[in-house]
Amino acid sequence: MSEAWLERESDGRIERHPLRRGLTRIGGPRADVKVAGVADDELQLWDDPPKLVHLGGEPHPSVNGDECTEARLEPGDAIVWRGTRFVFRALARRAALSLESEAELAEVRASEPAPRATAKRGPSTDATAATSAPGTTAAASNAPRRTAAPRSTNSHEPSPSLVRDTFWRLAFALAVLALVAALLLWGRAKHGLSLDAWADRLLGGAR
Known about the structure:
Tumour Suppressor Smad4
């Protein structure tokens, strides 16, 4: 089926004239669609986009009642020329492409070979798998196991016991210093002992 065609009523019946791709000639003896009484004039009908062109003198054709020498065509347009009435028919391009695609898909499916049936596994296959399983298990058990390497500890991180010992030593040293300072203050207040004089005596005795 063509995408576009002309319908002509003749002797009470509808004639259908498929249009060629590109150009269809209407008119004389050498035209694609002949019209009685036409010798030299010619109507040219182009398909993309659908367009009517008249080559010749009067009378000119009319499209939907309007006389013209050239006109764009839409599906359903009526063309009257030299006493003959045509109706332009066309499928929507999208619908035509859809029909062609469906036809091509049907041809491809028809040409494809039938799918093969998948073979079923017999009992011998299961038995072979069962007998090979113990050997595989034994091989897996004899394989050397990898032991995880021990995580190395950070040597720079102090242990809790070392931190605790350092704290108590520092606290003891502070306590001794506080006791000495208290004794010096008591001796100065009670006996007028001067730290400078005591230091001189200590240094002089050492000499």
